[in-house]
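hey so i finally got around to running the thing on that chain from the lab meeting. sorry it took forever, my laptop kept dying and i had to restart like 3 times. anyway pasting the input first so we r on the same page abt which one it is
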Amino acid sequence: MRVITLLFLFISSFVFANFQMNENMQKTYSHIINLEFDKANELLWTEQKDNPTNKIIILQENYIDFLTIIIGEDEVFFTAAKDKKSDRINFLQTGDESSPYYLYAQAEVHLQWAFARLKFEEYLTAAYEIQKAYSLLEENQENFPNFKLNKKGLGLLHTLVGAIPNQYQWALSLAGMEGSVASGLGELKALLQDEQMELYRNEIVFLTTFLQLNMTNDEVAYKQLLADIGDGYSDSYLLNFAAARLTHVLGQNDLTLNILENRPADQGKFPFYYLDYLQGMSLLYKLDFKKSEQYFNRFLSNFKGNNYIKSAYHKLALIAFLQGETEKKLSYFEKVKSVGSAAIDEDKVALKDAKKQYTTHSRLLSTRLLYDGGYYQAALKEIQSVNTLKEYSGFYDEYWYRLARIQSKLDYDTNEIIAHYQKAFDLGKASSNYFAPMSALQIAFIYEQKKEYAYARIYFEECLSLSDFDYERGIHQKAKSGLARISD
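ok and heres what got predicted. didnt touch it at all, straight out
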């Protein structure tokens, strides 16, 4: 089918080209967003045969490639598929300029490839494509202000632009880009309330969840998104992923496990092996080591990408460490060092821990896992179960950080929580661990919630003043978003 489509690029320039989001293309889109690519391709073949001038075909084909890359992370596929991008843009540019899909379709292709390239660290090209998509969508919004799909891409871009700190806004101004986290999320949430956008609801919920989790610290919004998903997680892989991430952040690990255990059947769908990794993590938070190992091994056996490979072996090493299996731990750490990539924070931390063979107190590690699962009382009992605080000697920054995190979830006095975070910050700011910057970030969140923005700014900036620590990119992103919020 794709060969025929590409041949068509060269023989049909004289044919009046159109953009028809007809019933067949709507069904195709629904199959694509549900990762049912074989069914989508069957409909695209039919559309190619019956309505060969419909340029929506090209947009749908690009969407399949995009999701295949984002979810599968197959570098060989990415390298082969990216050569099609320029042909697709050129083909779309021969379309009917009076259609609202003319600029929109081009913007979508640019935007999808930008995010695909980010997976493989092609940052310069991705930046150009993001700028190009933004320009096309802004122009299309002026030309067709009632074309609601514009807001899907613009909401995403306005949110991302709004998360850039003030000192870098000049670069965005040169590119003609502007926005805010609040306005971008507002655009997306308005689409969720629009019955005319029902076809795109799952995609919009997925995008909004991604942005909300990465750009805000708003539990009310997380709960609303979870309500918006409802039981849709059992029918859609993307919503299953979104619901699992939301419930995890809300500290509802048992619900996370239930969601992952009730994911859609995989028959007829492009495999989403990362969900096995998430299930392994959720079982690890319950300290269910045997089942957790099974899911990590399943992920490692099936996933062909490079991300989270080091992290999965790292978690297997931690399980061995907690069970006193030293040789097994060292064997897994060797795997961490030899396979996968270290592009994302989780894999960077895994590699660093493997190189130094990870040292902490076993109770602090168990405390961390229980806390991450939302088992706060169990975590408090675990961290306090030593005979004397001296047992945590060498790990005091981690102790005070984890104690403060638990206390914040159990509604301890705010001043006590801040004092404990401050101890973690003071003790750990010279370390490459994340306890100090995360402590500064959490203090900033507390002051932001209290509307004491001057203090919040101080601690967001304290967080950003530290570098070369674990999870730096994600922690700094939240601090930058925080500064942008209190500046709005």
